[in-house]
Amino acid sequence: MCLAVPGRVLGIEERDGTRMATVDFGGVVKEVCLEYLPDLRVGEYAIVHVGFALQRLDEESARQTLALFENLGLLQEEFGDPWENARAEAGLTGGPAPAAHPAEGEAGR
What we know:
Blueprint: E1 5-15, E2 18-25, E3 28-33, E4 45-49, E5 52-57, H1 59-71, H2 74-79, H3 82-89
Antiparallel strand pairs: 1-2, 1-4, 2-3, 4-5
């Protein structure tokens, strides 16, 4: 599922002529393109979808939406551990991923 998630702008910079922001989505920090909201400022909130800030949002609405998404487990679904997600998509379930090289002395166990 791809959600439009509210996030708070932590920092803004220009990269190769494109305005980019570091955005906090309730503890998950991602890079976001600001081309659709060129006047968005640090500290403001925006709805973000597939890496693009689409609409400015007031802080209270953003916090309520993030809390709702968290309660429904949608933030974990959207931003969960990428390694865990890749394992699930590959059909690998169960315990932790096998170590690349067994520790010395454990090879024959």
